[in-house]
Specification:
- With 508 residues, the protein is an all-alpha fold.
- The longest helix is centred in the C-terminal third of the chain and has 30 residues.
- It is built from 22 helices and no strands.
- The radius of gyration is 26 Å and the shape is globular.
């Protein structure tokens, strides 16, 4: 790169070189040629080493003025960056030549894949990244939601009481908690795509166990189902933080909530109706099929860790050390309180809501409609996004938590299950949908980049914590003979979270 003989080790790192910006620079053509040759050489070394394939594949950059307008022999015209991204994923190797002219010769399998779709990897996803992640979230949501209303009703029939249902869910969440706090370790030991795949297998096994579940097997199924949701949430949060800019988080989460909301509107009603009117195994079989579809779509996207975007990290501490570091940070404590209090409400709704519907005198299928209506509140996400843009994320979170708290107070006043109480459940769900969209943003914007993996693993335990606390509080309330205490305790937790949120930065 330099003509100075006394600087043989001089190197130049080029992040982005735009032709219009440097056109007035000194000897642009030669400098550009030198940079291209070094980049090509580096790519050749890197990819050949990583692929470990003896036969090198060559390709021709059809945009190169020195090479003409040549296309690949296959007739596929691709850019150099697209080819490199494809080579990373296909296992082919790349050989850089001094001429800077390459001919890309894909294998038959690679050629078929390229004709079927554009090679997709997160290093190539820009504006489409949010859409792809939203669709993936929708598919995963449908695989879980189809049995969310069935599980508590089936547990009530099998176990005989709300107290027994509470104990079963407590045991399941203990299993989930032990799995989730070690997600950071899994992230270090295996590629993220395999962590997501492992989570999908948990859900498929859980659905299979529900078909034959009783006693310990039911508890294990509850634990594996929740573990899948937690691991998937951890990995999706990491993808979002890696590839979505902070300014785009609100719009991205809004879009995700719409896709997820659609799944959770369809799933509960469909699952409970099939369980009541078709066959008791139908919702669980559908869940297995949708889990496989989700895994297929995930692998089709080729979502993986992008080496370009990885942040330097030290050896990840164990779960206990990560937990200590997490809760020493005030803003992260508040972010955890927001998501946990909101999730306790949802846990109570999904565990005791279907039972509430049946106890109020409505048929079983109405429980599915109730859960779908509550989940349908996620469709207010675009309105929430607009309001957050005008008033600020913090203000909307405080208001939504206040609505949820007031709804729980109303349910506590009503006491026993009554049909009018469903109105307050749904009002609380409206506030919960708003917090669903915005509740993770404080954490995503405030966590330190170098601590993302470790802190996200701890942060995502809000799911296990909430789904553990809800049945624990419910069991205590039932033991005292005053189930309305459950609603009152949740109301206090939500109000406390709203007050704590006021201490966050005004503009998140």
């Amino acid at each position: 790169m330099t003509a100075l003989t006394n600087r043989p080790g001089t190197a130049v790192l080029v992040n982005d070189m735009q032709r219009d910006v440097v056109k007035q620079g000194h000897d642009v053509d030669n400098v550009t040629a030198n940079i291209n040759s070094l980049v090509a050489k580096r790519y050749g070394e890197q990819i050949t080493t990583e692929s470990s394939i003896e036969s090198a594949t060559t390709w021709k950059d059809h945009r190169s003025p020195d090479c003409g307008a040549a296309a690949a022999p296959s007739g596929i015209s691709i850019t150099k960056s697209e080819a490199i991204g494809h080579l990373h994923r296909s296992g082919n190797s790349l050989r850089a030549r001094k001429s800077d002219c390459f001919i890309y010769t894909p294998s038959r399998v690679a050629l078929w894949a390229m004709r079927w779709r554009r090679p997709v990897g997160l290093e190539q996803l820009d504006a489409n990244a949010a859409v792809e992640l939203a669709r993936l979230g929708g598919l995963e949501g449908l695989s879980r939601s189809v049995m969310v209303g069935v599980v508590p009703l089936a547990a009530l029939e099998a176990l005989g009481s709300k107290a027994a249902v509470s104990y079963a869910f407590i045991g399941g969440q203990m299993i989930t908690l032990m799995i989730t706090i070690n997600v950071g370790w899994l992230e270090r030991k295996m590629p993220r795509r395999w962590v997501v795949t492992l989570a999908s297998s948990f859900l498929a096994v859980a659905a299979g166990l529900f078909l034959v579940a009783d006693g310990p097997l039911f508890v294990l199924a509850v634990g594996l189902r929740s573990a899948e949701a937690s691991i998937f949430a951890v990995c999706m949060s990491l993808y979002i933080m890696d590839y979505i800019g902070k300014r785009d988080l609100t719009s991205t989460e809004s879009r995700r909530m719409v896709y997820i909301g659609a799944s959770w509107v369809i799933g509960p009603t469909l699952g409970v109706w099939l369980w009541s009117n078709a066959h008791t195994s139908a919702p669980f079989l559908i869940s297995i099929v949708m889990t496989l579809v989700t895994a297929w779509y995930f692998w089709r996207l080729r979502l993986h860790k992008n080496p370009v975007l990885l942040t330097p990290t030290t050896a990840i501490p164990n779960a206990v050390h990560s937990m200590v570091r997490f809760f020493r940070q005030r803003n992260l404590r508040i972010a955890y309180a927001i998501t946990t209090s909101r999730a306790i409400f949802w846990a109570a709704l999904f565990v005791y809501g279907p039972i509430y519907v049946v106890e109020s005198g409505l048929p079983k299928w109405a429980a599915g409609v109730f859960l779908s209506a509550a989940s349908g509140m996620l469709f207010i996400s675009p309105m929430v996004r607009i309001t957050a843009d005008r008033l600020g994320t913090r203000a909307v979170i405080i208001g939504a938590l206040g609505v949820m708290s007031a709804s729980m107070v109303a349910l506590a006043i009503i006491g026993d299950a009554r049909q009018i109480g469903l109105v307050f459940w749904l009002t609380g769900a409206m506030g919960g949908a708003a917090v669903d969209m915005l509740g993770n943003i404080p954490f995503m914007r405030l966590v330190k980049p170098r601590e993302r993996i470790a802190m996200t693993a701890i942060f995502t335990t809000w799911r296990e914590t909430s789904f553990l606390l809800a049945p624990v509080i419910g069991a205590i309330a039932l033991g005292l003979g005053s189930f309305w205490l459950l609603y009152l305790v949740i109301a206090v937790l939500l109000a406390s979270a709203a007050i704590a949120t006021s201490f966050l930065p005004r503009r998140l």
